[in-house]
């Protein structure tokens, strides 16, 4: 049986080493808190304005300001900064925190689409850091999809990276 990390690598197209290259440099020190705030704001402005109702509905029970804060605190902490997220919310426990939401292949791709646009529009992030961050985001998004399958193993796979592959049990 494949591990969640193995599934994430397979479905995301990003191997574990590339996904965790963010750990080779302290991106928080390099970029600063304000950059993570800007990235998260750019991202959630796109998410909450998404033309796809099914995708917007995933976030309907969250205030945009809270979503922005959760994300920039998590990103800052995960990329070398202070434990802001842990201090306010406890351990990130990504799979558990995302359990109430439909974390499908399609949702992951849509999330990644908005994150790529947000990265592209956040000019304070250099191109090498953007690549490392996107590899981490891509792998993590599909790690959450694999975790979602633990609660819902019969869901279909609607993802260009997983075409022709059966849903894992």
From TrEMBL:
One of its GO terms (biological process) is oxygen transport. GO terms for molecular function: heme binding; metal ion binding; oxygen binding; oxygen carrier activity. InterPro entries: GlbO/GLB3-like, Globin-like_sf, Globin/Proto, Hemoglobin_trunc. Transmembrane segments: none annotated. Keywords: Heme, Iron, Metal-binding, Oxygen transport, Transport. It holds the Pfam family Bac_globin. Gene3D superfamilies: Globins (1.10.490.10). Belongs to the truncated hemoglobin family. Group II subfamily. This is Two-on-two hemoglobin-3.
